[in-house]
Amino acid sequence: MAHSALQPLFDIIDAIVEIYLQFVTKPFLEFHDIFYASLNKFFRSQLDAKKVPVWFTANFITYLRTALIIPTLCMLSWRWWVPVSLTIIFVDFGDFLDGVVARYWVDKRKEEKAKKDAAKDKIDSDDDSFEVVSIGRPQKIASWSSNCRSKSYGGFVDAVCDKAYVVPCWIFFISTIPGTRLRMLQYATLWCLILAEAASGTVRFRAYFTAQGVQAPRVVGLDFSTSAVKADGIGKAKQTLEMVGSALYVLPWFRYPGLLLLSLAVPLAYESVRRKIKKRVIYVDGADQGGNVACHKMLKFWMQARGMGSKLIVGVVGKERTTDMVLNACACSAVDEVIAEAPEKVDLDFLTVHGIDYVLCSAGKAKDIAHDELVAERRILQLHEDGAARPIDVKSGAKTE
Description:
With 401 residues, this protein is α/β, with parallel strands linked by helices. It has 13 helices and 7 strands.
């Protein structure tokens, strides 16, 4: 009830933030991307030209820059403003550098994987070409969940460590606010950023430890968000404004320019959290992969569908073996809700009644489970063999690129 009453207020805030993204953040990102693209090119060429130690990883840089919070807080207590400002800039540079190093090692692993595949070496159990080869002794095989968490750990720890460094700094900044006319604005700005980043970190933790066992498919030809700026762009702009703003704010001579940058980061912090918690309901036909829930292909398909949204609904068509199929679907952790005796072909009214945003199906099965009106509304996505989900072209029924 309270949520419904506040919804008009949130709608107004969202509209204001979208205008800000369109006319302020988007132009800023154009210059931001040009500058960091040149830096990325330079440092990547240095990495390619030299033999990089195996211990010099993105996670190593992330841990190192996060550990700097201890000397930073010490210097803040000693009022060493200039060294603190330089340390914050160094930490921000470390955040950029760990991204360059991460991409370097990803490319290296791809090269090694290609060699292993050519030699028919060991591959992950979530790969479609995986086979158990008898070697005459017990073998340990990592689960899909373990593989998925291992692959996504770097991005998770990078985002969390960013917050673990900057939030304590902001908490300390609150104690240094002078008794000026703008003190309330400073309190409001810092507290908004602290609460937003704390909420974002909480969502990140939950998403990481409750993630499905396979990576969510990338969506091609359709942007779930109608915003002028994509999620990664918001993250880049927010990080730069927060870190540079903090580095200036800590200097008494540049407090107000720093406050301006931190204030500009507040709408981005809000938008970042809003997109993380935005609801998106995905529907799949329970018989899409043949109807055998014990089949690993069916489980993988459901996990992929769940990873694309915040809720997964599985429809069980027909009356034969309905109870067994419904209970099997209910027993799957990726499934949030099951609709028994669902229609063979879903239409727009069905989606509206059940609050469904998108229908996901395997390639070539869209006409079997959905009416043409869903194709026209771009509400049905096909999952292809390359791991990408694409909407269907209205005219040809072919995938869109």
